[in-house]
Amino acid sequence: MSTTAAAVEVLAERSTTTTSVGVIGYIIIGGLAGWVASKIMGTDKQMGIGLNIVVGVIGAFLGGFLLSFAFDTASGGWFFTFLTALLGSVILLYIVKLVRR
Fold first, then answer.
1. pTM reported for the whole predicted model
2. 22 — alpha (psi -120 to 50), left (phi > 0) or beta?
3. pLDDT digits (tens, 9 = 90+) for 11-59
4. Helix spans in the chain (H)
5. How many other CB atoms are there within 10 angstroms of residue 20's CB atom?
6. In whole angstroms, what is the distance from residue 63 CA to residue 82 CA?
7. What transmembrane ranges does the database entry give (predicted)?
8. Distances (CA, A) of 7 to 17, 47, 48
């Protein structure tokens, strides 16, 4: 295996978004994280519960990817997953606000 392929494999293993909370956990935590992030970013009036869940779940993946370079995000549990999803959701909403201007 080449050095590049090995580096890609290590990066893929490190940036995994699989945690112990499962799919239903991602939906619940994503909804809460998306709602809190929309409150922080001031976009709560424009978003409903469905969009809060979508932002939270995408934010969980984004936050999990970004934090995987510094922490083991797969074994964090519910609270760490919530903080990861919240961080990713705030970053996602910030990027969306920048694009919409």
1. 0.75
2. left
3. 555 544 555 667 788 788 888 999 999 999 988 777 788 888 899 889 9
4. 3-14, 22-41, 49-67, 77-100
5. 11
6. 10
7. 20-37, 49-71, 77-96
8. 18, 39, 41
